[in-house]
Design goal:
With about 575 residues, the chain is α+β, with helices and mostly antiparallel strands. The chain is built from 17 helices and 19 strands. The strands form 4 sheets. The chain has a 7-stranded antiparallel sheet. The chain has a 7-stranded antiparallel sheet with strand order 7-4-3-11-10-2-19, with helices on one face.
């Protein structure tokens, strides 16, 4: 099937299609779904899908009190900063993509920036080698945080409730505490190996001085106080007032570079999202400084020229196409993408049909070597924290937010007196062209460190429209794997007619050009599929689960929220929504 020739896909299938879908699902789905059922819910009043049930509850409560999806997204963002401290944040950054019922689409870039004192060689020793750990842990790893500015901008533009009302639930969660679940308890357990170097982390210990256990209550009075300041004074408190002073003091203590000027200068930005199409659907996603939307659309543009469900390729054949599309798109990521305020990027060419056709025509039955697309490099593959949430209200507004401290608990630096963690987002720059970051991603000059520049991201908050109405609101954490997770879910739903639950549960495979390896989730892909891929020349590496997608699918005003079974998220629908002006 050629590009621009839409497939006749009926997402709400007839009996015949159900049968076909069942057969396709049996062929393609190689994972015991019953063992990995995602958390899902349905509602026509509104839906919130996040990585954490306490934050989901906040979003739902805001919808039920008559707030719109933007109100709920702002409140949920602050709640995650309290209840999901590994990635939810006020000391980090992220991206918000929204489509209002009116058809207006907006994208807020609240990505961190390099401090003004940053320089291209700040993580290199005198011989020009990268100093290990300097961009990933401690005060020097921190970028200027953007979350408070970004959430405030969203509220100013489209919020309907009072700003203080949106902060109130997270202040309560911080001051009165919330119950720790097993996921948080086990992640805190791992965090504590850093507590000698970063004593601020001891705020996460229980009263008896040992790591908190499931069912313990986490109370964070300092964070509660800071959130109250933000509720009262908005971003002013964070970027100019008491909180700014606390951040600067903390930076001075540990040799960090963020100054009062950095905080005063920080602005979240409205950017044009990238918009493409896939088999008759409109795909709206994150523009640079995220690579997410560009790489996603490049992958989908290449795939659109292949008849995925109609062929007899089997699982391995489809995986081969996806891997080869990913290889090519990620190679462009490394070569071309960075902060649009600092570099020129050939985005028109990268997203053109001609380019997709050229890349597609270069795909054969066998794997090609990544080095044939650029200089050969390889690197480690590590931590993939970040968090995504998707929200839809009953009025047709949808919001997708991906936000991050970069790796779990960011730089491990807790701002003294303020009780929140700072990011280690500086590692998302390429410290030295060709040397991989913690995600094994390599970059070149386009993503080199410069003062005030935003580091390249992979975050991919995405909205898919069908017949000009939201069909999917989705995204995932997972560092470099975010983009392939989002691509896979879209292909599973649009090409393979999977239900959103199946699409999310389905086993994941990932390739990112360098290292030249195909990563597959342990225990999810059939042996015969793996053998077929190996016979095509792919180098396979088994790994831990990939991503933590939060997806909302909307059909005929019914929303189905699905939280990935991989980590323990929570999707919940709104029930009794108080409509304004209605008694
Ligand atoms: N720090 C992960 C990302 O922005 O992609």
């Amino acid at each position: 099937m050629s590009r621009g020739e839409p497939m006749n896909i009926h997402i709400r299938p007839s009996f015949t299609q159900v049968t076909i879908t069942l057969i396709i699902t049996m062929i393609f789905s190689s994972m015991p779904l019953a063992a990995r059922d995602p958390v899902s819910d349905r509602s026509s009043e509104g839906m919130v899908s996040t990585a954490c049930s306490a934050a989901t509850a906040v979003g739902v409560a805001i919808l039920e009190m008559g707030g719109n999806a933007v109100d709920a997204a702002v409140a949920t963002g602050f709640a995650l900063a309290v209840t999901f401290p590994s990635a939810g944040n006020i000391g980090g950054g992220g991206f918000m993509l929204a489509r209002m019922d009116s058809g207006t689409v907006f994208f807020i870039d609240f990505r961190e920036k390099a401090p003004l004192a940053a320089s291209g060689n700040m993580y290199l020793d005198l011989t020009g080698e990268v100093i290990e750990g300097m961009s990933t842990i401690g005060h020097r790893a921190c970028g200027v945080p953007g979350t408070v500015a970004g959430l405030y901008m969203a509220w100013e533009m489209y919020g309907t409730l009072e700003w203080e009302e949106l902060l109130e639930p997270s202040i309560r969660l911080a001051e009165q505490g919330f119950t720790i679940d097993s996921h948080l308890a086990s992640s805190l357990q791992k965090l504590m190996k850093y507590d000698t170097g970063y004593p601020g982390l001891r705020k996460f210990y229980g009263e008896n001085g040992s790591p908190m256990a499931p069912e313990d209550t986490m109370v964070q009075p300092e964070l509660g106080r800071v959130l109250k300041m933000i509720a009262r004074d908005g971003p002013e408190a964070f970027y100019r007032g008491t909180i700014a002073e606390m951040i600067v003091r903390e930076m001075e203590k540990g040799g960090g570079l963020i100054t009062m000027d950095d905080l005063n200068d920080y602005r979240s930005l409205l950017r044009e999202p990238v918009i493409g199409s896939y088999r008759g659907h409109t795909v709206i996603s994150a523009p640079p400084p995220s690579s997410g939307g560009i790489v996603l659309l490049e992958i989908l543009n290449i795939l659109e020229g292949f008849d995925i469900p109609g062929s007899d390729r089997g699982r391995a054949g489809v995986e081969h196409l996806m891997i080869e599309a990913e290889r090519r798109a990620y190679s462009d990521r490394a070569l071309f993408l960075g902060d649009p305020d600092f570099i020129e990027m050939p985005l028109g060419r990268l997203l053109s049909r001609e380019y997709a056709t050229r890349l597609r025509n270069s795909i054969g039955e066998k794997a090609i070597a990544s080095s044939s697309l650029g200089e050969a490099l390889s690197g480690p593959y590590e931590s993939e924290e970040t968090t995504h949430y998707s929200i839809a209200d009953g009025e047709g507004n949808v919001v997708a937010v991906t936000t991050t401290l970069n790796s779990a608990y960011g730089s491990k630096v807790v701002v003294e007196g303020a009780g929140f963690l700072m990011n280690n987002e500086m590692d998302d720059f390429s410290s030295k062209p060709g040397v991989p970051n913690i995600y094994g991603l390599v970059g070149g000059k386009a993503n080199a460190i410069e003062p005030g520049k935003r580091m390249l991201s992979s975050m991919t908050p995405t909205i898919v429209l069908r017949d000009d109405k939201p069909l999917l609101v989705l995204g995932s954490p997972g560092g470099s794997t975010i983009i392939t997770t989002v691509a896979r879910i879209i292909v599973n739903i649009i090409d393979l007619c999977m239900s959103p639950q199946e699409a999310v549960s389905d086993g994941r495979i990932h390739h990112q050009w360098m290292p030249d390896k195909v990563y597959f989730e342990k225990g999810t892909i059939k042996k015969s599929t793996l053998e077929d891929l190996e016979s095509r020349g792919h180098i396979l590496v088994e790994r831990s689960p990939i991503g933590d997608a939060q997806v909302i699918m909307i059909q005929e005003n019914e929303m189905c929220g699905v939280s990935d079974p991989r980590r323990g998220g929570s999707s919940r629908g709104a029930r009794k929504v108080v409509r304004k002006g209605v008694e």
